[in-house]
Amino acid sequence: MSSPDSVVPGNLYPSDAGELPWETRRVLVQLLAGPSLEARRHPKLWPVLVRDEAVVRRHLSELFLDLAMDVDQKVAFTRQADVGDADSPVLLRRSQLTFLDSVLLLYLRQCLTQADTKGERAVVSVDEILEHLNIYQAAASTDRAGFAKRIHASIEKMKKNNMLQKIRASEDRFEVSPTLKLLFSAEQIQQLARLFDRMASGEAIAPPAAEPDDEDAP
Question: For the residues of 159-199, what is the DSSP string, one character each?
Fold first, then answer.
């Protein structure tokens, strides 16, 4: 029996009207299912994406989607295309980032930068996250127990969206996904870091408004 990869496009199943090979379709499905496609987690799909990048981009564009891809880090994900004022349908579900979500994302992004300078993987523990985010308790205006609960909720959101990837044989240590490098520009990192540092020092500044977090962005 022939393998799916050897089947001629358009003949994968009785009603198949597609033109793409089996493996390219699998790449598209993974990108649409999300939250990301990474060489380490998808070793068979990543080389197909690199090979068929132009084709994949073209098919995503038909759905008003963009492909965010970093060949060096070997990660990719889809996000809504910027169509300006055009009234285009939104395919990808979106959720809101809370203040603590934003602080946690920035912290994880900084961990990636520090790990890169040392040529290491970015690994963090739950205790390290709690210690770092606890300095923002006053800005969040909540009781200690409630604040810790909100931090754990943010951690769970990062795990769900694959920003934090569990390390084997460890219950509370995670590797930070390199996908974060595609989500924050250097300018955004500097602006957020300055704002959060002022808040952590006790300056009376309202937390930034929640930004839409594309679940198209892992």
Answer: HHTTSEEEPTT-SSEEEEPTTHHHH--HHHHHHHHHHHHHH
DSSP designation for 46: H
Residue type for position 31: L
Cis peptide before 35, with omega less than 30 degrees from 0? yes
Q: How far apart are CA 37 and CA 55, in angstroms?
A: 16
CB 60 within 8 A of CB 31: yes
pTM above threshold 0.90: no
Q: How many CA atoms lie within 13 A of 66 on its CB side?
A: 10
The model's pLDDT over 149-174, given as tens digits with 9 standing for 90+, comes to 889 999 998 888 888 988 887 778 99
Stretches in the chain below the pLDDT threshold 70? 1-10, 86-95, 138-142, 184-189, 191-193, 195-218
For 79-85, the CB contacts below 8 A with 24+ separation are: 79/214, 79/216, 79/217, 80/214, 80/216
**Tell me, what amino acid is at 110?**
Q
